[in-house]
Amino acid sequence: MIKKEIHEFFFLSKGGQFVWIGLLLGLFLVAFIRTAWVSDDAYITFRVVDNFADGLGLVWNPGERVQVYTHPLWLFLLIPIGLIGFDPYWGSLFLSFAFLVGTLLLLIRMGWASGAGGILTAFLLLASKSFVDYSSSGLENPLLHFLVVLYLLIFLWDKGEGIFFIGVIAGLIFLTRPDALLLILPGFAFQLYRERRDRGFLKLSILPFFFIILVWVLFSIFYYGVPVPNTALAKAGNGFDLPLSIRQGWGGIQWLWRNDPFSLVLVVAAVALGGGSKDARCRIVALSILLWVLYYLYVGGDFMGGRFFSVLVVAGVVILVRELRGGASIKFMLLPLFMASTAVQASVFSPPNYNNAFIDSNGVADERGFYYTFTGGLPNYFIRDRRKEHIWYRLGERFYPLHQKVFVGCTIGLWGYAAGKEAYTIDPFALSDPFLSRLPASRSSRVGHYERALPAGYLESRLFGSNRLENPHLAELMRLVLTVTQGDLWSVERLKSIVRLNIIGPSLVAQSGYNPDLVWLPGKSIEAKGAFSCAGVSSAVWLWRIDQDGGELKATALVDLL
Predict the structure, then answer these.
(1) Which long-range contacts (CB under 8 A, 24 or more apart) does 22-28 make?
(2) Which residue ranges does UniProt annotate as crossing the membrane (predicted)?
(3) In this structure, is residue 485 part of a structural domain?
(4) Which of 50, 204, 391, 410 sits between 20 and 30 A of 541, alpha carbons compared?
(5) 124 within some domain
(6) CA–CA gap between residue 26 and residue 31 (Å, rounded)
(7) Does residue 180 form part of some domain?
(8) Strands of 552-557's sheet, edge to edge?
(9) Is 302 helix (H, G, I), strand (E, B) or coil?
């Protein structure tokens, strides 16, 4: 009798649910505090935030309009933080935790519809290294988790009251990460088909969706000259054939199996359960997860182990919650809770000196393990500005006074942020370079680090501010790029160049005979070519200052000047 009353209190009564929710949120708070970190790529966005706050616009290099960020909405949330002078490092972590709490409350609330499912929901997420690692990182993942769960809540449970928000949320997901539309478009199309005779629904859902997308795409074309982020050109436009991309993507899945098997098993189980569901909506969500995996393989995966899969873990948990509604019991959950216990300990009790700076043979790495020692929340709380002790940050800060200089850097995040707004950076990985991003990458590039060779005359063009490329086709491409990214916003010539760049840009590259494997730096011999080199140098400190010495260009490694 007593056991029955205890069970009813903790798993059925509202009072018991509040106790569990408090405990679960407390566990996540501990896990977040012990694992929160910021990636090198996040500092690319942070520099844009600082430049905007200083009145330079949404740019990386001053005077050059290039979209170096993939997540407009995440950037817009960080901009007010920058405008009030608050450190975007801590601002990104506070925002991340806020969206984490929002995601958890939505998921736990869904879980209680399955009896004790709220507990299972929380433990599944805590056991996922991918979810825990990318509940921070300074990137858009926490915001994407929240919006996808909100969308799925309406799609799977809504009875019509929240139909207006479905288009708005879909549009916001596009602004958070454009390719994330793959996760919701099947469901959106299904909803439109089901309600095709309801003109009110069509207006309330389609109009906000297309309005948000149209406004941003038009702004992007006008301001940046292209409808997609420069980062998409640099990575998805690397020129690799499909078999090579699939091999790289498969390497990311193999990494997940070795380092975060729980997440992979959870996603597979959710797809199997959802795909066999009697509920057509669950089958569509399962299909969306599969589309995302196929897209991951198509673009060649990513070097950040687990980053692309964190949102799949969230969607998978939603499927499990939906399918277990009304049927979950504490006995049913004992096995998954036991299986998850070891992985949960790894997040809740993650050490403050967590370090796993290892890149596997496929080029994939545990990015939190790579940076946590310097950019982790705990190290920076107890050791003031620990992130500034990283070699890349120290080099950028050391050479901050060298304004109006041109630098070549293959790791531009921490260094570029610390170097300040006046440092002009050439990025062979092309994330911030609107010209190089249009060229094919070396086939030996590491996944996510698609290196471009510097064409003859390119460094001179950047150093002296004029088009000095020797190849006539590349010179024409450079002329268009300079006009679009640096010309007067409202000039007729610039508007014409935008059209020409997007139409004939690929053909100019094809006609140029450009060889992406001819990597070089002035005055330097080629030491290495491969996945773990840049500009012919194998050292991990890929930062050089470019100067003119007696009429000849010279590259000087910044680390040699310390």
Answers:
(1) 24/104, 24/108, 24/118, 24/119, 24/122, 25/101, 25/104, 27/122, 27/126, 27/344, 27/348, 28/100, 28/101, 28/104, 28/122, 28/125, 28/126
(2) 18-37, 73-91, 97-127, 139-157, 163-185, 206-226, 255-273, 280-298
(3) no
(4) 50
(5) yes
(6) 9
(7) yes
(8) 424-426, 406-409, 543-549, 552-557
(9) coil
- Looking from the CA of 75 toward its CB, the CA atoms found within 13 Å total 25
- Find where tokens 């609107």 sit: 434
Q: Residue 464 class from Cβ within 10 Å (0-12 exposed, 13-18 middle, 19+ buried)?
A: exposed
One-letter amino acid of 483? T
Whole-model pTM: value is: 0.92
My answer on whether 183 and 268 are in the same domain is yes
Are the C-beta atoms of 78 and 91 separated by less than 8 Å?
A: yes
100 and 167 share a domain? yes
Angle at 50 between CA 44 and CA 55, to 5 degrees: 130
Query: How many structural domains does the chain have?
Result: 2
pLDDT along the chain (562 residues), means of 10: 45 61 81 94 96 94 94 97 92 96 86 61 85 95 96 78 77 95 87 69 77 96 96 91 94 94 90 89 94 95 94 92 59 51 66 88 93 93 86 84 75 90 89 95 91 94 90 97 95 96 96 91 84 84 84 85 72
Give the 3-state secondary structure percentages of the chain, helix then strand then coil, rounded to 5: 60, 5, 35
The verdict on residue 108 lying in a domain is yes
Pair 412, 341 in one domain = no
Task: Please give the torsion angle defined by the CA atoms of residues 314, 319, 325 and 330, in that order, rounded to the nearest 10 degrees.
Answer: -60
Domain span at 451: 390-471+514-561
Bridge partners (DSSP) listed for residue 549: 552
Give the H/E segment covering residue 131: helix 129-133
108: exposed, middle or buried (C-beta count within 10 Å: 0-12, 13-18, 19+)?
A: buried
What is the predicted pLDDT for the residue at 127?
Answer: 87
What is the DSSP code (8-state) at residue 410?
S
Same domain membership, residue 268 and residue 406: no
Closest CA to 255 of 356, 365, 343, 342: 365
Q: Are residues 145 and 226 in the same domain?
A: yes
**Beta carbons of 48 and 224 less than 8 angstroms apart:** no
* Strand-strand pairing, 424-426 and 406-409: parallel
Residue 65 and residue 121 in one domain? yes
C-alpha to C-alpha distance for 335 and 344, rounded to whole angstroms: 14
What is the spatial distance between Cα 286 and Cα 366, in angstroms, rounded to a whole number?
Answer: 27
